[in-house]
Amino acid sequence: MTTFKAIRIDKADKGTTAFLTQFDEAELMDGDVTVAVEWSTVNYKDGLAVTGKAPVVRRFPMIAGIDFAGTVIASSHPDWKAGDKIVSTGWGLGETHLGAYAEKARVKGDWLVRLPEGMSARDAMAIGTAGFTAMLSVLALERHGVTPKHGPVVVTGAAGGVGSVAIALLAKLGFHVIASTGRTSESQYLRDLGAAEIVDRNELSGPAKMLGKERWAGGVDSVGSTTLANLLSMTKYGGAIAACGLAAGMDLPSSVAPFILRGVCLLGIDSVMCPIERRRVAWSRLASDLDKSKLSEITHEISLDDVIATGPKILGGQVRGRLVVKIT
User: Fold this and answer.
1) Which CATH architecture has domain 129-268?
2) Domain boundaries in the chain?
3) pLDDT per position as a tens digit, 258-278
4) pTM above the 0.70 mark?
5) Does residue 1 register a pLDDT over 70?
6) What class does CATH assign to 3-115+298-326?
7) How, if at all, do strands 177-181 and 153-155 pair?
8) What is the mean pLDDT of residues 210-232?
């Protein structure tokens, strides 16, 4: 019997339990590529999964972790061979398919993206699903036609994973970035990433007016609820907000006014089932557009043994930037 170390989630009398254990390779799910997982990361969704705070996991037993980078060790897929360096995010990893917090993973080859040249597996997971989502958001704003000449852009949840990468990307592209955070102690950190202004999240978390003063041409929101409603009400004519998170809730207490009076657009960002071609574009852009020195500044390393204890911290907004998990 071949086993490997993994974080396993099981159903319990009340909720779920998560624990580090040895997992039997025979229990891996179907897939045409087997990967030696080298690095993963901790995203907000991972925090929900390991703490059981939300029903993220929909199959038991489950190996947690929604993204990984590593090396192919066996493949029957035509695009992949042993030794290939890959990255995988989403596709139900850690939710419906055994995930990333393990020394091995077996997945469909169609879920994999080749690690960009010059990017290490550790770098890829320093970016992770959060950074990948930030890039998808920036690409959506670009497709909408939002450019620096149209005015400032706003980023909410600025000190978190999505927010940190979004600020770095947008600043490098020449935007005047307004960072919204509840942790004003992180102001210097956000300015170092490229934020030109810092606003307290309380300015955006109260009940939204149907229309507010026009303040930004676009934005990236990982918070949702009244914060997103306020962003929309303050977006300039023809602007757009990319919505990719729900840290404050799934509700959206807004009105149609921004849409029908200012032509504002709400751009939905999904990183889980994102088509493979768009994934390749996003990872290519991350390799070229994300300053590696900035990535280093926002990244902290932990071991697989530390992941479960980190879950409550990321849900409590106590984690700055990105966490990479060394698997092997």
Assistant:
1) 3-Layer(aba) Sandwich (3.40)
2) 3-115+298-326, 129-268
3) 999 999 999 999 999 999 999
4) yes
5) no
6) alpha beta
7) parallel
8) 97
